[in-house]
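MOLECULE: protein
FOLLOWS: sequence and fold
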Amino acid sequence: MRQLKVLISASAALLLTACGSADKAFDASGTFEATEILVSSEANGKIMELNIEEGDRLDAGAIVGYVDSTQLFLRKMQLAASLRSVDIRKPDIRKQIAVLEQQIATAKTEQQRQENLVCAQAGNQKQLDDIVNNIKYLQKQLDAQYSSLSKTTGGADAEAEGLQYQIMQLDDQLMKSRILNPQTGTVLVKYAEPGEVTAAGKPLYKIADTDLIYLRAYVTADQLSRLKLGQFLRVFVDFGSDRREYPGTISWISDKSEFTPKGIQTKDERANLVYAIKIAVRNDGYLKIGQYGETSFNE
């Protein structure tokens, strides 16, 4: 019986030693996280469609819904009608000054004829002077009318330009009424439903790219001296009885020390100052946000 007790004690000690060795088989530990994006509404109004569910995988640029934009569209049509009205009211300068130009051309022809008669001493100098003065008068009328019509046209052009900018603003608002998915990823949380009234800046859903996931771990100052950006590390994850290894790369190293998070390691170790690092790991579909992982610095 005594030998049996000794054997059991020895086995227990060996098991504890093995467990202790397993616990120290890694250099740092932490949890997985991903780059999350909170997608918010860019328009005010009722949500007409929002075709997403939690767990859906969406492509970047996909239109997943839209907010009611009826009033914006009607406002755009009103501005388009105003723009056409401005174009119709714009004067045709060439046609409006054509009569004066024709009168001046006729007067100049008469001036040439009268000069020939005066040179041949068959004409009246006073008639020639009257024709010259009439041409000057007509030219002043032409200049005044051209200036007036140019200002009217310039004002119409400026008004049309202002209307075009307003239409461009409405086009931008109409574009923002569509709900576009910003990046490829998986929907984590859905905050709104079709039929609800939303506002600009109000969250609609949260999405994260889970193809590339990051193990956020903490290392001591001594360990930090062995690490650098881009360095290859081995990452281990437990799946019940299955323990898998993944290749990882250091993508970020904090430049500030902090106290170890309470959920990491023992009470004494939590009092130590550590540095946070992120290890990028290509997800095979099994890794989840918040899952626990470990890393080893030995390649």
In short: The first helix runs from residue 2 to 23. Residues 1-23 have pLDDT under 50 and may be disordered. Residues 70-176 form one domain. The longest strand covers residues 242-259.
